[in-house]
Amino acid sequence: xxxxxxxxxxxxxxxxxxxxxxxxxxxxxxxxxxxxxxxxxxxxxxxxxxxxxxxxxxxxxxxxxxxxxxxxxxxxxxxxxxxxxxxxxxxxxxxxxxxxxxxxxxxxxxxxxxxxxxxxxxxxxxxxxxxxxxxxxxxxxxxxxxxxxxxxxxxxxxxxxxxxxxxxxxxxxxxxxxxxxxxxxxxxxxxxxxxxxxxxxxxxxxxxxxxxxxxxxxxxxxxxxxxxxxxxxxxxxxxxxxxxxxxxxxxxxxxxxxxxxxxxxxxxxxxxxxxxxxxxxxxxxxxxxxxxxxxxxxxxxxxxxxxxxxx
Amino acid sequence: xxxxxxxxxxxxxxxxxxxxxxxxxxxxxxxxxxxxxxxxxxxxxxxxxxxxxxxxxxxxxxxxxxxxxxxxxxxxxxxxxxxxxxxxxxxxxxxxxxxxxxxxxxxxxxxxxxxxxxxxxxxxxxxxxxxxxxxxxxxxxxxxxxxxxxxxxxxxxxxxxxxxxxxxxxxxxxxxxxxxxxxxxxxxxxxxxxxxxxxxxxxxxxxxxxxxxxxxxxxxxxxxxxxxxxxxxxxxxxxxxxxxxxxxxxxxxxxxxxxxxxxxxxxxxxxxxxxxxxxxxxxxxxxxxxxxxxxxxxxxxxxxxxxxxxxxxxxxxxxxxxxxxxxxxxxxxxxxx
Lengths: 311, 337
Known about the structure:
The structure holds 2 protein chains of 2 kinds.
Chain A: H1 5-10, H2 18-22, H3 31-65, H4 96-132, H5 134-149, H6 152-163, H7 167-194, H8 197-204, H9 209-245, H10 257-266, H11 271-299, H12 301-308
Helix pairs in contact in A: 3-4, 3-11, 4-5, 4-7, 4-9, 4-11, 5-7, 6-7, 7-9, 8-9, 9-10, 9-11, 10-11
Chain B: H1 2-29, H2 34-39, H3 41-45, H4 47-56, H5 63-75, H6 89-124, H7 129-143, H8 146-160, H9 184-191, H10 194-231, H11 234-241, H12 246-284, H13 289-298, H14 302-330, H15 333-336
């Protein structure tokens, strides 16, 4: 684990680094675990990367890959899957497969945007709260509690009603709802690190608060925050499609997965209308979570140490 | 300890006031005219009716007056009149809250029982096949879209297999058990009404499990991670070195410190369950607050939206308070800071 643990963990590298860390072994319980474990462990990250790459490819190539226009309603309504329409047609006579492909151009980029925005806001607030404590902590965390206590979907509903339901407003509403979870994690990380000896040492050496936060504490917190962010891309896809399912995000006739599932809920007897977009959401979210979960193990120094110490 | 709880309680009260303010501001950003929304066609035909309506509900007052009126009523427990149902919001919430509470409680119980067990098993069998299986299952739980799972479950178990009812709390035409808590399941238990108990169980199992899917995954993953983190400590090695049985090490030295973060996660899980009920209640026609809030916000029914928000906020503040207190009982260091 030297330069970039994300890349190192994400690629199917055989565990060549084992002999070196073996020397650092601190306890020897469960020897068998590690041996049977490592071949099982890495494939999940690989599957995650492959599935995400697959969806990114679909998103980029949708105009060329999709067999039909996602908005054209030329076909028989609710036709079951057949060779002409592999995933059937929906309640308005549109090709489900084409809409599915175009849907990836909506959900994935917006989810990444959502996560980036809330990570930036949340980490800054959390670091300030955790490091300075006292009134800064009080104010930031009370705001966080305030937002947190707000039933998220109701806040999004209010925003959707206020500004008109649209995907952009759904993203903005969800940034407001989601930043506190990053703030909480960062705050608790900083809190637990603040009393560590290396922080005291840095402070004794005359390091400023800003320097201590950015140089000494950030690397210790960054891993977990990054992993949380990676995990949250999946969650963001879920939240956005949930709002669209309720009719508060994507608007008809836009091809969006959540809205497609809600079309499926209206056409109960035609399973293919809702089943495929739901599976699309599931695979994307699962892939991000597979990756995020592996990253977590790789980046969290404490659990990594615990895992590494097992021969 | 008492002063710690007192401080948290005061903070909680301020939080609720803050939330009432945010709720009030947010719902007043809505450009649609609630008077016009409530009166419909009559509003367009007769401006006089609109003016009368606005005066009646204080909508012609300046915003800060409206808030003061609202807050004053709130202190007296009056949440206003829902423009949609024409009933006091307090009464509406009281009517819909038990169903939501019942669903959320059932889901959190399922999540904790399943999640804690799976998490502990995964940590004990770390990196072996069982751990990997649990890992994939829990990741599946947090990855599956609730609204789609609800749809799929009702198509499979209600429409195709016909095993479980797809909507409502009880069989149609069945009388509710004597009202004690308002929760059908608990009332059936308390009154010993076997008939409604069976029916209520049949109705709640599918929505509760669907709702719990996410939190099961969440709690499983945090339990495992938390256990592993503790397992990496030197004092665990010391405990093993002095020859303590693995059982003692696991349940006394690992589980207790590992539980601290899990308490927070459970609090968060309850919060996410309350939000998740909006999606689940919609699909299963569960007569709870989620559906009420959704329908109210679509109808621009401001008092109802504010009322529901404040009630859920109060519930959340109470959950947080309990989490904080539990936290300080388990880890006394928290109290001092």
